[in-house]
Structure formats: structure tokens, C-alpha cells
Design brief:
CATH architecture of the largest domain in chain A: 3-Layer(aba) Sandwich
Low-confidence stretches of chain A: none
Mean pLDDT of chain A: 92
Strand content of chain A: 5-15%
Order of helices and strands of chain A: EHEHEHEHEHEEEHEHHHHHH
Shape of chain A: elongated
Distance between the termini of chain A: 43 Å
CATH class of the largest domain in chain A: Alpha Beta
Oligomer: homodimer
Number of helices of chain A: 12
CATH topology of the largest domain in chain A: Rossmann fold
Number of strands of chain A: 9
Structural class of chain A: alpha/beta
Number of domains of chain A: 2
Largest sheet of chain A: 6 strands, parallel
Largest interface: A-B, 88 and 89 residues
Chain lengths: 286, 286
């Protein structure tokens, strides 16, 4: 691999570049993005070798392009890439909701390009963002989910897999639909619920006491609320179809617990709490 | 302080005894409880100096009694204490919902005893339980909330405050009602919501994948689900009146987000997420 391009050199893209430099995965890593200062900073930090703000220049000669920009920016970017990228150049992304990204790719890329698009999602991150927050170890032993579609070229899939393994990650493939369902459950829904709880409590006033006395429960909920609201808006909007039915089931379950609390039905509470704890202990290997 | 009695030598009572021994707070700490094996273990571990399973014997000559049993056991225990305790003996508890505990105390203690009952709640704990999980540092720099009532004797309040400070904690006093509202928000409601989420996901099947891909969001939610379901049933049952209106507001807020997601109203999502993050950053000093 001679050279690769990282579009969006923030926490995710920057950490990928750092982790690949660590193992000399390729000769040159080029940065591209909208924010010239971030790109300059990325060069200063040694995250990328050079940067350009000219997309046609950026893609010239590269074998692999990683799109690590907010999901809401991807549709337009894919169209711009379609105009300048040579056939056979592999493009992969890091979006947290794959159905939306695949739809954008299908809308932008023709039959020559689509096979070389490999949808991906590294399950890694921190509450921080920007290139200054990036670090080479972010993906070590973390899972990366690739969601190839019918059209995906198997050699392209293999290249992207190899890249993530070089970055330290463990790679699994699953379908777009399965990915979006599982991630809605494990990540997207919890974020929606946590944002909602904190927003409600703040609206009640007395926030200072509430945050001061925050014991285990609340602290765990609020940690994830530090995440970037714009990124989470994009993720939730991008995975609406998988999130909505889950949210409905969740509201139903909470309403049942509400009834049990209202009726002082301790047995029903105990049954629910016990089932949840048993599952947690079973799967988390406690 | 010559001797004190700890009723219920588990994580909470055991850790209190250990922390007080650390500073030689009193000459002797006696353990009492239902589980003879736990009590024997407590003596082996040096958590208490001796134990008895005879309550009349246990209370003889002690100046201070700490009740660290599940809240559902307190009403009966208070009645038994009322039969054997000398007037002037200070009794305090560690229950997470104070309204219920105070009601039980008022039902059991007469006008001579009630002034010497000091309701308390240490905001500390781990997911583990039992005397083997106890440790002397549990309360270091943690907050203990005391909720004196109209009848509470100020010297008794002072003694219990001094004890918790000796155990390493920071002590604050607030009203029973305020305590129960704030704790419903910061601890009880989050636990109910987390148990509900895990229970729902487990019912959906595919649990193995869900737990395997559990990223930040879900992992934070599920950590608190490891807590003892019996204890949490007691807490939720004991603070129903404060939890119910909060739960109703929460369901309303989540329903509004559901509508926003359904309508693809990204602005509404962004507004909620941003408000929550701003409050979190403001109060958590990020």
C-alpha cells in the first residue's frame, strides 16, 4: 500500500492514521477536510504526512480512501468523490448507522465504483473530538464491524479488513440490517434515553444538588451525555428505522414498570430487576 | 464512645465498622444480624469485635446503634428494638429512601425514643454485597445525607454526624422530602430505567451479540444493573411517591423525542441533546 487518504482528520480519522503509522502500514497518509486549521494541526502532530484542501489533488494515486466525517456530510461528499476518484480505488467509511450510508453510496456511486465501497463502523471512541484528542491506541482490541453489500468486491473487503487489523482492531462482518438493529439497541437507544433523562432533570431545576449528589446511577447515565450532540443527531437520524420500534418497546416496558410501582407490586419489580441482572451477569461473564 | 452496635454486617454496615476501627472510634463494635455465618465471618475478618444473635444482649450498654439492613426488614426490626433499647440510645439507619424509614420509625418508637432516631443515607456502595465485599475506604470523601425530623434531638444528630466524619465521609443535612426527591432523580429513576432497558433487550433475543458489541452507551447502562434486585425493589417501593411523578415526566420526555425521531425532526433532537450536554458540562465541571 503506497498511499492512502483520510477524509476528516478528527478523533476517529486521526486515531486511525496514528495507529497505521505506528505499524508503517503505508508510505504516505494524506489528510483532507473542510477545516484547514485542523489539517495543519494534524501535520504538526505527525498524524498525517501532508494535507490538501483540493479533493481532486487529494485522491490522486491513492489506493484507499477512509471517509471519517459526520454522517450528514457523507451524501454530498460521496457525490464529489464520484467525480474525481479513479475506478478501483477503495472507499470505506466509519459511520455508526450503515443503512443510511449505504443508501448515500448507492445514490452517488455508479456500477464501477460501488463494488469498491466497503461500509464500516469501528466500535470505539471517547467523549472528546478533534485531532488533538486522537491517539494511536484507540482501536487496539476494539471491534470494527464491516457490512458488505451484495455488490461489494471481495478483494476490496479484504483490503479494508487488513487495514483495520493493522490498526489493532478485531474485524467482524455482518449485514447492514443486523448491524443497525444491534447498534440501535446497544448504543443509539441508550444515548437517546440518557440525553432525555438529563434534559428532564435540568428542566426541573435544583440541578446543582442533583449533580452534586449524583451517585452511581446518574453518573453512569450522564457520562455518555458528554458526547457531541451534532454527531448523535446524525446517528439517530441515520438509524431512525431501527431505533423507532426499539423505542416503542422501551416506552411500553417502562410503562409496565410504572404500573407496577403505582400498584406497589414489588414482585413485578423484583422479577424485572432479577431478569435484567441475570442476563447481565450471564453475558458479561461476571 | 465505649461501644456501638451494627445491625446488618454486609457491604454497608461492614464497611462502616471497618472505617471506624481504622480510627479507633470506639472501644468495641458489636455485630448483630440474621445470618450467623456472615456474623462469624465478620469477626474472622476483624470487621466487628464480637457478635450475638440475641437482640436484648446486643443492645446492652451500647451508646449508638446503626441499622444497615434491607429497608423491607426495618419496620419489624424497629418494633423489636423498641422493646429492648434503653431511652437515650441513639439509633441511625442507612436506608436509601427516608420517608418510608421515618414512617416506620414513627410507628415503632415512642416519644422517648423517637428524638434519638437519626435518619441517614450514605451515598456510597459498590455492585457487590456481603461482609466479604466490605472495605474501610468505602466512605472516604463520600457524601452522607442525614435527614433529621422535627422530633430529632440535636445532640443525637451531632453524634451521628461525628461518627460519619470519623468514618471519612462528608455529612450534609436536608429534609426527608428533599432527600427523597433528589435521590429519586439521581439514583432511583436511573436504576429503574437501566433495569428496564436490559430486560427489554434480553426479551428480544440476540442477547449474545448485543452484549458482545456493547459500546460505551450500553455498558454504562448495564453496570448499574449488577446491583442487588432485592435491595432495589425495596428502594423503589420505599420511594414510590417521589419516583412516580419523575417517571411520568420521563415517559413524556421520551415520547416527545420519539415523535421527533418519527418526524425526522433533527433540530428537535439536536436541541435536546445540546441542552443535556451543556448542563452536564456545566455541573460536572468539564
Amino acid at each position: 500500500m503506497s498511499s492512502m487518504l483520510v477524509i476528516g482528520v478528527g478523533l476517529i480519522g486521526g486515531s486511525l492514521a496514528r495507529s497505521l503509522k505506528r505499524v508503517r502500514y503505508c508510505d504516505e497518509i494524506i489528510g483532507f477536510g473542510r477545516d484547514r486549521q485542523q489539517l495543519q494541526r494534524a501535520v504538526e502532530l505527525g498524524v498525517v504526512d501532508r494535507f490538501t484542501t483540493d479533493l481532486a489533488d487529494a485522491v490522486r494515486g491513492v489506493k484507499l480512501i477512509i471517509v471519517a466525517v459526520p454522517m450528514s456530510v457523507m451524501p454530498e461528499l460521496f457525490h464529489r468523490l464520484a467525480e474525481v476518484v479513479d475506478a478501483g480505488t477503495i472507499i470505506s467509511d466509519v459511520g455508526s448507522a450503515k443503512g443510511t450510508v449505504v443508501a448515500a453510496a448507492k445514490a452517488a456511486f455508479d456500477d464501477q465504483m460501488l463494488p469498491f465501497f466497503v461500509p464500516g463502523h469501528p466500535i470505539a471512541g471517547t467523549e472528546n473530538s478533534g485531532v488533538d484528542a486522537s491517539f494511536a491506541e484507540l482501536y487496539d482490541q476494539r471491534q470494527v464491524l464491516l457490512t458488505p453489500i451484495f455488490e461489494t468486491d471481495s478483494a476490496a473487503l479484504y483490503e479494508v479488513e487488513a487495514m483495520w487489523r493493522a490498526a489493532g482492531a478485531e474485524v467482524e462482518t455482518l449485514t447492514v440490517e443486523h448491524h443497525d438493529e444491534v447498534l440501535a439497541a446497544t448504543s443509539h437507544l441508550p444515548h437517546v434515553l440518557a440525553y432525555s433523562l438529563v434534559d428532564m432533570l435540568v428542566a426541573m431545576g435544583d440541578s446543582e444538588k442533583i449533580f452534586r449528589y449524583a451517585a452511581g446511577g446518574f453518573r453512569d447515565f450522564t457520562r455518555i451525555v458528554s458526547s457531541d450532540p451534532l454527531m448523535w443527531r446524525d446517528i439517530v437520524m441515520g438509524n431512525r428505522e431501527a431505533i423507532l420500534p426499539l423505542l416503542d418497546r422501551y416506552i411500553e416496558g417502562v410503562a409496565q414498570l410504572r404500573t407496577a410501582i403505582h400498584r406497589a407490586d414489588g414482585d413485578a419489580l423484583f422479577a424485572t430487576f432479577s431478569r435484567a441482572k441475570a442476563a447481565k451477569d450471564r453475558y458479561s461473564g461476571k
